[in-house]
Design goal:
The complex is a heterodimer of chains A (271) and B (260). Chain A has helices at residues 3-40, 52-61, 63-97, 99-114, 121-128, 132-156, 160-168, 173-211, 216-225, 229-258. Chain A has 10 helices and no strands. Chain A has 2 domains: 1-44; 52-258, Orthogonal Bundle (MetI-like fold). In chain A, 37% of the residues are buried. Chain A has 271 residues and is mainly α. Chain B has 8 helices and 9 strands. Chain B has a 6-stranded mixed β-sheet, with helices on both faces. A 3-stranded antiparallel β-sheet of chain B has the order 2-1-4, covered by helices on one side. In chain B, a hairpin with a 2-residue loop joins strand 1 (10-21) and strand 2. Chain B folds into 2 domains: 10-85 and 162-259, Rossmann fold; 95-160, no CATH class. Classes of the chains: A mainly alpha (271), B alpha/beta (260). Chain A binds chain B through residues 159, 161-162, 164-171, 175, 179-180, 183-184, 186, 259-261, and chain B through 60-62, 81-82, 84, 86-88, 90, 92, 94, 96-98, 107-108, 110-112, 139, 155-156, 159, 161.
Chain lengths: 271, 260
């Protein structure tokens, strides 16, 4: 009997959630229906805007290719993100700990922030050739900056009094790093990783536009050159699912790392 | 109950500190000398920017004096720090959000590599001393401001330093909490028997808590007057109406106003 109020409360909550999502759901379902009807009636040219049912058929037809290309792009995205985050973290460490490295690396970081990193893609292809290496490098470059800046912001925000307290027990530099710096900066680092993960797909797709023989970016180009617009849309759907899944995965890891601590607000982004 | 070593005696002799900045040199402290007997409670008081914090930071080995000598039980501040003789309490409690209250108290002991059981035992003793035993597993943000300060005091006492340097520890608290914390601190001090160097802006607070009040004159700092406070212990709120309290505060106020 005691279960009942709890159960009904849960049901009420679910009911409220459904109710609050109703306007958006109705709107988008309606949009899809209108879109499909318009497309079937020939009001919109198929090669300009194919209807949802056409896109669906294209997904079914190209399923194996889409899966394969998602795997290829996903791999580049994850490897590029890991590499970029690692370099970003190490650079932040260098800038935080060394005055000389700060003087050397800071201008490079500012340059990186202002230059559109996508514009560097052709240079990377000259350096690394066409293929995975270039794509990973471009993705890494795009992920690097937000991780670098946010990690540095985290380190520099460490309470001086805490460091003074560590001084009073003669804590070594690794001890300061382990007990204070990293946990203190963790919300910022996680925020930087989240921004990086949301940008990783941009890097991978741009890389594949110009330097790939497979992957979702390559497939978009191939399909659009054949004016197979429904396939382009099918790939776009795969790209957004991939990017979103990766972003939420990184976010989840971050939340697990932080436990019940707050994430840092105002993370620095730059694409 | 709580196992504590004795407070250290501090000796400050002809200490000066000159800061070199882009705009030239600033003499922040000029020729300060005083003695702090073991186990006493000494307040440094003076107008803002008078260099009292600089003096405390030199005693705590966070700054080196330009000239003169400081000893803590006969040792230089850096040697004393190496022997874990110096504890700090700051204006903000600076507890770390990612650790429980208990783990905040054991943070210095983690650095010192104490075994787990001993750390826990020590931290529980201290939390008991500061009246936070029931909050050991709470997160710092679940505590009130006054409780956070008590946790910070427990943390500073964890490795049993001889001197507790407190830099305007209750400056950010509301007046009622601040008063309560003062008496709480006196109770902890009476039990732990540490030497306390207490920096404050408040004349009343300094007189009510201290064995001796050092009045400092502004830039460059020197000790203008050393006022012993003869009120008996334990100190109580009623001491505020005591003629000796009123006399001491009036004297200090007059002195600081002359200089302000």
């Amino acid at each position: 009997m005691a279960e009942h109020p709890k159960k009904s409360r849960t049901l009420t909550r679910i009911g409220q959630a459904v109710l609050s999502a109703l306007p958006a759901t109705l709107f988008y379902v309606g949009l899809l229906v209108v879109w499909d009807i318009a497309s079937r009636a020939g009001k919109v040219e198929r090669y300009i805007l194919p209807g949802p049912s056409m896109i669906g058929r294209s997904i079914k037809k190209n399923w194996d290719l889409l899966l394969h290309n998602s795997w290829v792009t996903g791999r580049a995205l994850v490897l590029g993100f890991l590499l970029g985050s690692l370099i970003g973290f190490v650079c932040a460490l260098g800038i935080y700990y060394s005055k000389i490295l700060r003087k050397i690396l800071y201008p490079a970081a500012v340059f990186l922030q202002t230059v559109p990193k996508v514009a560097l893609a052709p240079v990377f292809i000259i350096w690394f050739g066409t293929g995975q290496k270039s794509i990973i490098a471009i993705t890494a470059l795009i992920c690097l900056f937000p991780v670098l800046v946010n990690t540095l912001v985290g380190f520099e925000g460490v309470d001086q009094n805490l460091l003074e307290m560590m001084h009073s027990v003669s804590a070594s530099s690794p001890q300061r790093f382990y007990y204070i710096l990293v946990p203190y900066a963790l919300p910022s680092i996680v925020a930087g990783l989240e921004v990086g993960s949301s940008l990783a797909a941009v890097g991978a797709i741009v890389g594949e536009f110009i330097a790939a023989r497979e992957g979702l970016g390559f497939e978009i180009q191939m399909a659009s050159s054949r004016i197979a617009t429904e396939e382009v849309f099918a790939v776009l759907l795969a790209v957004s699912i991939l990017g979103m899944a990766f972003y939420y995965f990184v976010r989840l890891i971050g939340r697990l790392l932080l436990g019940n601590r707050q994430t840092a607000e105002g993370a620095q982004a730059s694409a | 109950m709580t196992d504590m070593g004795a407070g250290a005696a501090i000796h400050v002799e002809h200490v000066s500190k000159t800061f070199v900045t882009k705009d030239g040199t600033t003499e922040a402290v000029a020729d300060v000398s005083f003695d702090v007997p073991s186990g006493s409670f000494v307040s440094l008081i003076g107008p803002s920017g008078c260099g009292k914090t600089t003096v405390a930071r030199m005693i705590g080995d966070l700054l080196a004096p330009t000239s003169g000598e400081i000893t803590i039980d006969g040792e230089s501040p850096s040697v004393a720090r190496g022997h874990r003789r110096i504890g700090f309490v700051f204006q903000r409690p600076t507890l770390v959000a990612w650790r429980s209250v208990l783990k905040n108290v054991t943070l210095p002991l983690d650095v010192l590599g104490w075994p787990r059981a001993k750390k826990r035992e020590r931290a529980m003793e201290l939390l008991d001393l500061v009246g936070l035993a029931d909050f050991a597993n709470h997160r710092p943000d679940q505590l009130s401001g006054g409780m956070q300060h008590r946790a910070a005091i427990a943390r500073a006492l964890s490795y049993d330093p001889g001197v507790l340097i407190m830099d305007e520890p209750f400056g950010a608290l509301d007046l009622i909490t601040r008063d309560r914390m003062g008496f709480e601190l006196l109770r902890i001090w009476a039990e732990a028997k540490k030497t306390v160097i207490f920096i404050t802006h408040s004349i009343e607070e300094a007189v009510l808590l201290s064995t001796t009040v050092l009045a400092m004159a502004a830039r460059p700092t020197y000790v203008q007057e050393l006022v012993p406070i003869t009120l008996e212990r334990p100190r109580v709120v009623e001491h505020r109406q005591d003629p000796r309290f009123l006399q001491a505060t009036a004297k200090l106020r007059e002195m600081l106003e002359q200089n302000g």
